[in-house]
Model the fold of this input.
Amino acid sequence: MKRRTKTLALCGVLAALATALLFFGGVLPFAAIACPVLASLVLIPVYAETGWKWGLAWYLTVSLLGLILAPDKEAAILFVFFGYYPMLRKWFGRLPNRILQWAAKLVYVNAAGLAAYALMIFVFRMEAIAQEYANMRLYLLIGLLLLANLSFVIYDLLIGRLEIYYHVRLRPKLNL
Done:
């Protein structure tokens, strides 16, 4: 099989998997945040096998499919803002020292998270989300933000481990 055909087949199958994960983000009530994270991890083999151009095309395709097909738009919008992070992580890794890398990553995640929820609340008028955060006290919002940052650090470390696992264990078995 030609290389382009294999690439297209890989991207198509993994895009379907990521779209299904975004769909489950709306079906399972507790998974609105977990499913976009899992869907973004599917980008690892796409990016590793095809490069950033195909990875970007894959991300845009899954984002569009998620916005159209996912029953819960919160999961789809979170994927739009965070789904490309496994590729962006490589760029952060090029910064000169680890402190600067982590500072840039945390600025990114906080800015993207605030932008995503501002878009959901103020532009798309998602009243359920607005009501959920309106009823919270300030210390709960701060605690939620701290937990989100801790979860992001764990997610970032997980991506690094999954990339190693993919290259060492899975890639030799896939025969790509």
